[in-house]
Description:
Blueprint: H1 16-32, E1 36-37, E2 43-45, H2 46-52, H3 58-63, E3 66-68, E4 74-77, H4 82-91, E5 101-110, E6 122-131, H5 136-153, E7 159-164, H6 168-182, H7 191-199, H8 210-216, H9 228-243, E8 249-250, E9 262-269, E10 278-284, H10 288-291, E11 299-305, H11 306-315, E12 328-332, H12 335-350, E13 355-357, H13 364-374, E14 378-382, H14 384-389, E15 391-396, E16 402-406, H15 410-416
Parallel strand pairs: 1-5, 7-8, 12-13, 12-14
Antiparallel strand pairs: 2-4, 3-4, 5-6, 6-11, 7-9, 9-10, 10-11, 14-15, 15-16
Helix pairs in contact: 1-5, 5-9
The structure holds adenosine-5'-triphosphate and magnesium ion.
Adenosine-5'-triphosphate binds near residues 119 and 304.
Amino acid sequence: MINIPKGTKDVLPSESYKWQFIENAAREVAKDFNIREIRTPVFEHTELFLRGVGETTDVVTKEMYTFEDKGGRSITLKPEGTAGAARMFIENGLANAPLPLKAYYIAPCYRYERPQAGRLREFHQFGIEVFGTSAPEADAEVIFAASSFLKKLGIRDTRLEINSIGCKSCRAEYNRALKDYFRPHLGEMCATCNERFDKNPLRMIDCKEERCKKITANAPKILDYLCPDCRAHFERVKTLLDGLGVEYAVNPDIVRGLDYYTRTVFEFVSTSIGAQGTVCGGGRYDGLISELGGGNVPAIGFAAGLERLVLLMENTGVPFPEAPVPEVYIAGMDDASRAKAFSLVNGLRTQGISAEGDLMARSVKAQLKYADKLGAKYVVVIGGTELETGVCNVKKMSDGSVTCVPFADIYAFLKNN
Length: 417
Ligand code: ATP
Ligand code: MG
């Protein structure tokens, strides 16, 4: 027996409707917000993520699935969707298309992490990216799209936390203040924090180690260092969110895992799925496109983890729609009636009715048992009499009522009931 690789999951036929429900909701929200789908490769040149995600991030330093292909190129399975979307934008000259360019994706991501509830090595993201606008309206719109998506799923149990991490200029000043604060504590902090102290002190705020968290709690807050432009931008985003009735809390400790975020960052967090509570995270990344060799194109986006959404919905009793069941099961008693049942079932299917019949040469009793297991809404049994008269009894399983229907009218009967 060969087992599934660690940190991956099968979606069984009995549960795929849950995924379809979530994906459909994502597509509906995208449509309402006039956002078009993009599809980019599952693998990219490793260099894209080194530059596009950032060399000091956990994703790049610890989590990437990187390998050399047969042509000697370094290839990485995408750990997130933004870098590939940005590459696509640049490579296809989409800066010349009407802007802003609004795109979404539903795609698998790969990170070599320690598997636990809500943390897998292959997981799936629904993400939105808006390229070409630095307007605070875009920030509020993207956040509202995420919030509308969660609402559409019936999820109530998340908290929206927002922050601004400023631009290059306010960040330079903030980084200096952070260094002054952390310098005397470096001996008590972890190796990663010590590394980040030189390269990117902002990321020290993100450390999950208890001893570091204690020190970080009293560190200077980025919000006190925002330049006037960044401050005005953040205020405007908040005002717009207020106008849309979106509730949020400002959390100055959100800095997000990826390096090229600027200004607005946000997370939708739940307390119902354990330590991995962030179901959706996003922010503005005005520096990314130019970092990747494109022009000076501001952008903003988010990504929501679909596995965490399924977990959250299951844990908090948010109902999924019913699993789909066949409209009708048509059983046959002998070879001749079985052939008629077969042709009726397939005829209904071509008319868009979900129908099922026997593929196992089972007895009528066993066929009816199977129909019951499937949850068929109506059941028909065809035998010699039905063949002769061309009329059959259609039984409604929910109340046992029976209607006599000519073969030719089964479609119309099912359509109207
Ligand atoms: P975390 O702090 O939980 O590691 P992150 O900051 O690494 O999250 P992002 O890179 O922002 O996560 O990814 C966006 C979303 O993708 C997360 O909010 C989460 O829902 C989902 N996600 C990230 N990593 C995983 C994973 N290993 N397994 C399942 N879902 C994940
Ligand atoms: Mg992570």
